[in-house]
Amino acid sequence: MVYEGTDSSGTGTTCRPVVATLAIMDVAVTDHLLSTTRSVRLKLDLQRPVEEEVLADCLRLALQAPTPGGAQSWRWLVVRDQSVKNALGKLFRSVGEEYLRAAVAAAGDAASSGPFARMVRSGQHLIDVIEQVPVLVIPCLTGRPQGGNADLSVFYGGIFPAVWNFQLALRSRGLGSTLTSYHLRHEQEAAEILGIPDDVTQVGLLPVAYTTVPDFKVAPRTPVEQVAYLDHWGSPLG
User: Fold this and answer.
1) Within 10 Å of residue 84's Cβ, how many Cβ atoms?
2) Under DSSP, is residue 75 helix (H, G, I), strand (E, B) or coil?
3) What pLDDT, in 10s, does the model give residues 18-42?
């Protein structure tokens, strides 16, 4: 029998037996989760509360993501207080509206129809209602980004896999989210609002809510043969 938490020092640490099982995943269910977890903006339920235990379970699953060197440098700030959401919303909106105006101007006629128009509508909706979303989650890393590409890949590699774990866990429980970065243009102001120390880096903001629809579709994507190569850049995968 294998025990979890066994203490060989004889100090009497409580141990629980671990039953070895062969976990067989349902590939169809897993593939559906991975291929239909969308960035949700328009279809967030602004009225339905998000239970603390549900959010905690999703965060626990987030912490099972790979972490460089076992550092576990991630930190998570969960915002429910309306006055705090209002303050963050002002920062979010000021940057988001400027970004969308510039994007629409750059797109020209293409901004009035098709996928781009849908993107603008969805983005504008989130900007308009950001403070009304039940929960805002801000993933952070201890430390500040330094160095070149190799160092930065390790630094940010310590949080984004966990963010994706979190989003998948939300999706499997009927909640939606989207990773945003608007407020990071005012990171210091946000840090003052939230009491975040100077040596902690915010990496985004996720509005979290139940979704108003039960499921989502697979998104159109460039074929893998056009974006993946074999052995050398540009060589066909197969």
Assistant:
1) 16
2) strand
3) 555 556 789 999 999 999 999 999 9
